[in-house]
Amino acid sequence: MGGFARNRLVKALRSGLMQAVRRYLGAAPLVLLFLLPLALSLILLLRGLVDIQASQALFQHPQFSGALKLTLFTGITSTAASLMLAVMITSQNHRNILQQASVFLSVPHLALAMGLGFLIAPTGLLARLIAALFTGWTLPPHWQTTQDSFGFALIAALVLKETPFLVWAMASVMQQDELKQRFARETIVALSLGHGLHASFMRIVLPQVLQRSLWPIIAVFSYGMTVVDMALVIGPTQPPTLAQLVWTDLNDGEVLANARGAAGTLVLSGLIISALAMIFLVLRITRPLQRQWMTLAARPEIRSTVPARIIWPIWAIIYALVIVAMALQSFSALWPFPDLVAPHFTTTAWARLLQDASPFWTSVVIAIVTSCLALVAVIAWLETQSQARDRIALAAATAMLCLPALLVALGQYRLLLLVGGTGTWVGLLFAHVLSVTAYMLVMLTGSYRAFDPHWQSASRGLGASRLTFLSKVKWPMMKASLLSSLAIGFAVSIAQFVPAQLAAAGRFSTLPMEAVTLSSGGNRALIAVYALVLMALPLIAFQLSSWASRPRWRTA
Amino acid sequence: MLELRDISLAITDRVLVHPFSLAVAAGDIVTLMGPSGSGKSSILSYIGGDLLEAFTAKGDVVLNGQSLLLQPPETRHIGRLFQDDLLFPHMTVGENLLFAVPRLPKAERLTMVTTALERAELTGFADRPPHTLSGGQRQRVALMRALLAKPSAILLDEPFSKLDKSLRGQMRDYVFSHIKARAIPALLVTHDRKDAPIGGRVLEISNEGVVRDV
User: What is the pLDDT of residues B102-123, one digit of tens each?
Assistant: First the structure.
């Protein structure tokens, strides 16, 4: 009798212990890989939070006020324009808009900025096309189209890149099963009340979509205000944006300059927060006006939807032109101006990429390793933690994506310095893995939690163990989202520049680092090669993932 | 008067509803019954002008002597009521109603909203968000919203099926009396015979897709 009770007690303890062990083991990878380093990085930012001397040095920098104005101008304009365009695009019914947007998403910012340069520079493909088709120019036009002092080129590059991201974010809200049906029926109601299609979208669907797309919009704004790699390639130089100024300081060996860079990073973050606060204040104050507009009486609509409908196809055309411009340039050594193609094609630049292939392989290996590590960590977390804890992980990931990238990178860098990890492989991996994990968490949590738990009960009913259920039922069924999140992780890793450059400490070079260095030089063909490779790698990853996750058979 | 002339409905070559005709006089409420999937809701969509592309429908829809087929949904003046109240969640109850009021001086529009709230027995609820109302209250607001747009006909797509049994009878009386007071034709679609107004005409779509009086 006593033995029996003890037996039961031991069993209960053991199973409780097993559960606890499983929970801790499952959480460990994500905690070690992501949550803990992120927390430590953010804590380390507090050190020297208010460095009066460094801040004064920053404010006295001759380019500070110019840089400040440029940063506000480029950040606000690019975000507003991207949002407006994204609204126009999502107001139209485009088939497969999510897949199309994700293709644009996979293109690294840096590669797009470099490629856009080849399209719009005075000797770029656009000027050559205009010369050939209309004007017969024999000399390049006096355009200041890249690195212009107002930052228009930077704005254009940001808008080209961020609009598809917002389209993706908004369209994924609109295509959630319940919302999609609800919006469709609400639109029918609005139409039956006499409002036109456009008014129905703007007043009924859009406000509800925007409410749910707040974080992506903030992320776009924060990105636009702090972007470094794009600005170095296509942004203004005299003065540069604040992010460029800060970046130069952070890379400076001198202690004072370095401290000034750190102070600049904090100023930049403060700037973003105050700008956001201002925007929310304005939105709050004008709320009565917004409400009035929302409830205006129906009136007949005579409005052409053609402009809104052609924006999205134009995106594909611009990206295609950018790729063509890069491809032509990569095979051309000498390319006299009005000629549409160079007189001789040469593969010299491509040969140089192969000769010094170490940045390429460094980037590829790191991307594969980090995306696989992150996938394991995210799945281990989602499999073993309660849904309530998703909020912790998602909050960390959202913070990572919405905080200024420079700020997080600075914290990461300080952490690496503290443990002596700069200039090591592990340090370089760490510099990549945070963003990769953040993106993959955001991408995967929704679909992982949406998996119907009935499948598990059904499998258990058939006597399948947990592992069998996972490997034979759940993961195969979720193959598409698992693989596409892997591709996203790969793409994010390939594009990492700021944290990687800081962590590498000059000992390693990755593709983006090499590309930025080359961009300040004059070897246009080689620059084009790097831009193309940067762009191609994520696209290849996406193609592979969608090929590997194609359905085994067509359903009728 | 709402007239359906030789209306038929098919989905990818499979006939759902064979041609039938029907006239609903002003103030009448005609009930169309049928099992789920019989196409009864799609007929309402055809009348309203928002039939999904997968369906093909034929026949003319005539409202007060004018064919509606070439008109977009927003100029057909046909009110709609669904199972779900479909109150817009980002607007207050009052704003939901105001959204439906046609162009008039602002003071008049606001008076119409106040009157509608009174009729919904929800005076003082104007600033409440819809989700704080009970199911029955929301459905009353939805009816008032549909009527505020001054429709020339109204289509009811199982508007009582999500309500508690105890509420249903009350809600039926409420809806029917307000529609009758407007003297507009109404077409009700349901799978529950008890939803039909007493003494009203009832048609049924058979399993073979034939529409008959019952």
Answer: 999 999 999 999 999 999 999 9
**Which residues of B are less than 8 Å from A191 in CB distance?**
48-50, 72-74
- Are A193 and B146 within 8 A, CB to CB? yes
CA end-to-end distance (rounded Å), chain A = 61
Contact at CB, B74 and A295, closer than 8 angstroms: no
Task: Answer yes or no: do B86 and A294 touch at CB < 8 A.
Answer: no
Burial A6-25 (b: 16+ CB within 10 A, else e): eeeeeeeeeeeeeeeeeeee
Q: What is the pTM of this model?
A: 0.90
Please, which pLDDT band fits residue A137 given cuts at 50, 70 and 90?
Answer: confident
Nearest CA in chain A to B99: A295
CB-nearest to B82 from A185, A197, A299 is A185
Q: What is the pLDDT of residues B196-214, one digit of tens each?
A: 998 899 999 998 899 999 8
For residue A507, give the H/E element and its range: none
C-alpha span between B133 and A28 (Å, rounded): 45
Among candidates A399, A350, A370, A375, which has minimal Cα distance to A494? Answer: A370
* B77 interaction partners in chain A (CB closer than 8 Å): 194
- Residue A432 · residue A366 · CB < 8 Å: yes
Closest CA to A430 of A412, A443, A448: A412
Q: Where are the beta strands (DSSP E) in A326-483?
A: none
Contacts for A47 with CB less than 8 Å, ≥ 6 apart: A414
Q: Provide the pairing of β-strand B14-24 with B153-157.
A: unpaired
How far is the C-alpha of A148 from the C-alpha of A231, rounded, in Å?
A: 11
Q: What is the end-to-end Cα distance of chain B in Å, rounded? A: 22
Confirm or reject contact between B131 and chain A (CB < 8 A).
no
Are A188 and B73 within 8 A, CB to CB? yes
Contact A193 B91 (CB under 8 A): no
3-state secondary structure of A158: helix
CA distances from A230 to A28, A162, A262, A333, A521 (A): 35, 12, 20, 24, 16
Please, which residues have CB within 8 angstroms of residue B184's CB and are 6 or more apart in sequence?
A: B26, B27, B151, B152, B153, B154
The residue of A295, A299, A301, A303 whose CB has the most chain B CBs within 10 angstroms, and thus the best one to mutate to test that interface, is A295
Query: Which residues are bridge partners to B203 per DSSP?
Result: B32, B213
Question: Does B74 contact A291 at a Cβ distance shorter than 8 Å?
Answer: no
Residue A556's pLDDT band, with cuts at 50, 70 and 90, is very low
Long-range pairs, B121-126, Cβ under 8 A, ≥24: B122/B93, B125/B93, B125/B94, B126/B92, B126/B93, B126/B94, B126/B97
